[in-house]
Amino acid sequence: MKVTTIILVGLFFSITVNAQSKETVGESPWGSDDEIGTLNMMTEASQLQVLSEVSSGKIYDLSVEYFVGMPSFHSLGDPGYQYWLTHTPHGTVVDNPNGLGAAMNKKVSYTGDAISMYTHMGTHIDALNHFGLDGKIWNGFTPEEYLGDKGWKKTGSESIPPIIARGVLIDVASAKG
């Protein structure tokens, strides 16, 4: 290796390490308790403006269907999509559901089901607690203070308001014929 190459590699490494050491988690201009970031820019007036521009009743379903075997992050150890019946008419016949006693000579049955899946499968929205730096998430929230046994207590998807805003839909499949 030439000396100039070694110097350039060293310089690049130094710049990279220095740049990374200055990276910090995003802090909100809306205050230290903010959990929704730029969604704060959405107002009743902006929502009304967007709704006033609707010119047709055409609906675009942006969700995907869930199915056993659908893509997941199996290689990272995350579970795949699973579906099963928890109750079937053959195994959960309920006698006298309305309390009518002998007058009720029919049996009522029901079917129940359950799913189990990694939450980053199919259609989902990433909340501001999805990624962070140095153990902190958006706005400097730390796991020591805001992470519970059932997840983050800050910036989760439950804090995201209904989003009524202008969007751009690009139909790639149609564009490619």
3D architecture notes:
The chain is of the alpha+beta class and 177 residues long. It has 2 domains: 31-63 and 123-177, no CATH class; 67-122, no CATH class. It is built from 4 helices and 4 strands. It has helices spanning 3-21, 44-52, 143-146, 172-175; strands at 82-87, 112-116, 147-148, 151-152. The strands form 2 sheets. It has a two-stranded antiparallel sheet with strand order 1-2. β3 and β4 (151-152) form a beta hairpin. It starts with a helix and ends with a helix. The mean pLDDT is 83.
> Count of DSSP E strands?
4
How many strands, what sense, and barrel or not for the largest sheet?
A: 2 strands, antiparallel
Radius of gyration from CA coordinates: 26 Å
Uncertain residue ranges: none
Tell me, rounded to a whole number, the average pLDDT.
83
| Structural class by sheet pairing and helices | alpha+beta
- Oligomeric state of the chains present here: single chain
- The share of residues in helices is 10-25%
Number of domains: 2
Number of helices: 4
How widely separated are the two ends?
51 Å
Shape: extended
Major sheet strand order:
1-2
Q: H/E element string?
A: HHEEHEEH
Amount of beta strand: 5-15%
Provide a compact summary of the structure.
The chain has 177 residues and is of the alpha+beta class. The protein folds into 2 domains: 31-63 and 123-177, no CATH class; 67-122, no CATH class. Helices cover 20% and strands 8% of the residues.
Keywords:
single chain, two-stranded antiparallel sheet, alpha+beta, 4 helices, 177 residues
